[in-house]
Design brief:
CATH class of the largest domain: Alpha Beta
Largest sheet: 5 strands, parallel
Oligomer: single chain
Distance between the termini: 66 Å
Radius of gyration: 28 Å
Helix content: 40-55%
CATH topology of the largest domain: Rossmann fold
Number of helices: 12
CATH architecture of the largest domain: 3-Layer(aba) Sandwich
CATH superfamily of the largest domain: Toll/interleukin-1 receptor homology (TIR) domain
Length: 294
């Protein structure tokens, strides 16, 4: 006789009981017991159901979020650390999306912002005077609200917070609370485990220039031959932090422009690189190593 989902069951008493109605899962049969014995169809079905139920419960207790971090580029040091810690906790480098330029890449870059924001279920906004005054951040917040994202505001620096964010639970990172304690509160708000220890911020050798981290990102993009990213970040560095724009930066920018068919702009960048390298011959060493590695 056929049971649920067409499963053939051998017990002739399987459909008995229940006020004359046939039921797919009967109580243990009083006339025979082979249905609930190991190896029987019903026994195997129940084991599979229990295993799938446990898997669902595990997935509910350990959510796998995809996070978008909105911020002002002025808060890059904090934002970078936050994104790295979230990626480490979630065990996925792509779990938290964060752009070091702070939405200053222009309208073309906005398309990428929209794509990433729509693809993620959690929207974290770093609150500070600069982010609250940023038209780009305001657009992101409006989109996250319209899309019904899980929004988690983080108070990094004291500021005037817009009314629609004040009604949402805000996680404060303000002193005297430590970063580690505040980060655990953030994990709790996201339904993530707080058992994993937060690595203390490493005080490595100070960067040579304020744009050192951005230079490293340009080098990474160059090694990956992501020419549009090289051009975008190099242009930002040159305009915003000219002191950090070394000959190596201009050289990478020039090569990227050549690859994109922008010959005149490439020539200007490479000529600037040559001028700078004459002043400081060592400035191209690092990017040559990147070129060799790629």
């Amino acid at each position: 006789m056929a049971g649920r989902a067409g499963v053939a069951l051998s017990c002739p008493h399987f459909f008995r009981g229940g006020e004359g109605k046939k039921t797919a899962f009967e109580k243990p049969c009083t006339e025979c017991h082979h249905l609930d014995e190991p190896g029987s169809v019903l026994y195997n079905v129940s084991i599979q159901y229990g295993a799938s139920q446990q898997e669902r419960e595990r997935s509910m207790t350990t959510p796998s979020h995809r996070i978008f971090v909105s911020h002002s580029h002025i808060d890059n040091d904090f934002g970078t650390r936050l994104a790295q810690d979230l990626r480490r906790v979630l065990g996925d480098e792509s779990a938290a999306w964060y752009d070091v330029l702070g939405l200053q890449g222009g309208e073309t870059w906005w398309d990428k912002i929209v794509e990433e924001l729509l693809a993620r279920d959690v929207f974290i906004v770093v609150l500070s005077p600069d982010s609250m005054n940023s038209p780009w951040v305001r657009r992101e917040i409006n989109m996250a609200l319209n899309e019904g994202k899980l929004i988690v505001p983080i108070l990094y620096r004291t500021c005037s917070i817009r009314a629609d964010l004040r009604i949402i639970q805000i996680v404060s990172f303000l002193a005297p609370k430590t970063y580690e304690a505040a980060f655990k509160e953030l994990l709790s708000a996201l339904g993530l485990s707080t058992e994993k220890e937060i690595e203390p911020k490493k005080l490595a050798t100070p960067p040579e220039t304020p744009g050192a981290s951005l230079v490293q990102q340009i080098e990474t993009a160059f090694a990956e031959q992501d020419w549009s990213d090289v051009m975008r970040k190099a242009d930002y560095l040159i305009k915003r932090m000219p002191a950090a724009a070394t000959a190596a930066v201009y050289r990478m920018q020039g090569i990227a422009l050549l690859e994109e068919g922008k010959v005149q702009a490439a020539q200007e960048a490479l000529e600037t690189a040559l001028v700078k390298v004459r002043r400081c011959p060592r400035s191209l060493t690092r990017t040559r190593a990147v070129s060799n590695a790629s």
